[in-house]
Amino acid sequence: TDAHLKDLMYANGVLLLVTAKDPNNHLVILGIAIVPVENGEHWTWFLRCLQSAGIPIADTVIVSDRLKGLIKACNDVCPDSPHRYCMRHIVANMNSSLGRHLSSVEESLVYKLPRSDSRESFTRHMDKLQSTNAVVATYLSHIPVKNWVTYAFPRPTFDNFTSNLSESANQWLGTELRSSDAVTLYFRYMYHLLKNINERST
Questions:
Q1: C-beta of residue 46 within 8 angstroms of C-beta of residue 62
Q2: Do 79 and 8 belong together in one domain?
Q3: Over the chain (202 residues), what is each successive 10-residue block's mean pLDDT?
């Protein structure tokens, strides 16, 4: 995911992050980088840096909000990694595109779709959505199911279909850290990380 830098750091660009979950369902930040602008070139560079550092991304499930250039970068650097799109961001983009927010009934139907573990259940939920709001159903039908619906996704994601983990990382980093100069940012990041690891081990 990306995070906007704050205050004086704003002029330095964008903070890129890659996060994961450990076996205890805890947040683990695998890498961060400051780049001038978020694009495919910088995502490719960042992913290659992670590979060089020994981070096993070559065959790992990726969940993202379809950030600028990230999909192409993933296809270039780790083509065997299945890429799932964040449902929360799909809904946000849809709201923006359609110029309205989903009703609670519509949202409930929409969030049943990515959890569908069979083609039959997906079709059943989509038919209900079609009868409730055909425009929303049509919008979602243009997104390949292999990238957002459980039954069509090649790997189990254990009900993880949003990139909320990365959003949690932004909160974990905090505004103060993202307002620091580059060197201080990295030192504070390492401090946060070591403190977090120590707290989990005690």
A1: no
A2: yes
A3: 48 78 80 86 94 86 83 91 92 92 94 96 98 96 96 89 69 64 78 78 70
Structural domain includes residue 62: yes
Tell me what pLDDT residue 9 has.
46
Q: Which domain holds residue 178?
A: 2-85+162-201
